[in-house]
Amino acid sequence: MWTKIHNTFWCSVHVFLSLGPMWFTFYLALAPYANDYLYCWLSLMAPQDTGIGFGDPVAPQNWYLGLCMILVSAILKANWFGAWLQIFMTTRFCDRHWKPPKNPSSKRIMQADRATWEHALPGGRLVYIEGRRPRRCPFGCQFDLSDRVYHCQASGQCFPVYDHYCDYLRSAVYLRTMKPYCFVLVFLPLDALYSFSVSLAALCDPYTRWTAPFVASMLATSVAFFFVLMMNSPDGLQRLVWRNSVGPEVSGVRWTLAFKYQERDGTHLRLHNFEKNPWDLGPKENFRQVFGQHWWMWPFFWWTSERVSRYGNYVDRDLPFADFVTEEFTDQIMSRLTSVTIDPPAPSSIHGEGPNRRQSARSDAERRSQQQSDNAATNHVGAFARHQRGGRRHTEGHSSSHDRGI
């Protein structure tokens, strides 16, 4: 019997939580009516006649107080409701059939599946296939996965930098919705606390003639605040903003990256495991990755960051990597370029056993050709390393033209 009661209780809780959008809409309609209209407008800004012909004159301080309270309420609600609407529209319509960018073969550093090690040669070497990525969706999506793309089972598709599916908002949290999701987590509880305080002040006002709307507003506010507590945790927000880590990556397993390089017999991949998050750029830069490169972009939830517009279009990468990834890539490629077998010096011709002139000229030409090839590859690696280290500082010209809106 207790098992049945327990199951019934949790089933009811699940149904209650599954109606999150309905409760948010109910709160959004009831709280402004009770607080902004009945209290701020009718009580403070335009008090009604008492019914016996002696209407009280409007005090200027009350009028300005009511106006300020309405403006604060409007700003708070516009930030979280507008962000929620953007999340819903982006997930349901704009990115309904999202696919990775069509330039997978141009990346020198790519994320790889952990199971790729089972098919690798000694030393983590793989044969590179032009136009293919070392990642596939385990749920049957018919395309190779670019970096940090994970499958959302609730939506039945893959998203870039996917974190989780929020049942309360009925939307996925990923690259394009991460900033507005943070706005919902911040401004919805602030608005709930503010509405609760205004309703409580209205109930304590002896001149308030209505009590039921404010009581209902306080109940709706409590429900909204409860939903915020259920879907938000300080650790989750810190993980997204300060550590640049998403849900599928919080498993304690090492990250696997594939380095693409050229050899005499063709292009190859070399696998490497990292103990640290290769996309962790430090708290300050991680914050900018979510909210934008410049401070004037931070207060607007619709003004997306650079990594949203440039995902998959960076040179030799899908997203900016940490410096230790670039250093490891450079070290491995340089070690391969410098481990070249040098021909032994020709024996002295005094004994009459030296090579003839044609063989000597051919050997010299081969050595010069190999040296030129090594120098060109070394210069390319050096240029790539400099670009990786400065990749997060050359974006001044791209922010104004690419970072706005959906």
Give an overview in words:
The chain is α+β, with helices and mostly antiparallel strands and 406 residues long. The protein is built from eleven helices and eight strands. The chain has helices at residues 2-18, 20-45, 60-94, 178-204, 212-231, 234-241, 283-291, 306-309, 323-338, 357-390, 396-402; strands at residues 109-111, 125-127, 149-152, 157-160, 164-166, 171-173, 255-263, 266-274. The strands form three sheets. It has a four-stranded antiparallel β-sheet, covered by helices on one side. A two-stranded antiparallel sheet has the order 3-4. A hairpin with a 4-residue loop joins strand 5 and strand 6. Helix 2 packs antiparallel against helix 3, helix 3 (60-94) packs antiparallel against helix 4 and helix 9 (323-338) runs antiparallel to helix 10. The two termini are 52 Å apart. The model is unreliable at 339-346, 348-363 and 392-406 (pLDDT under 50).
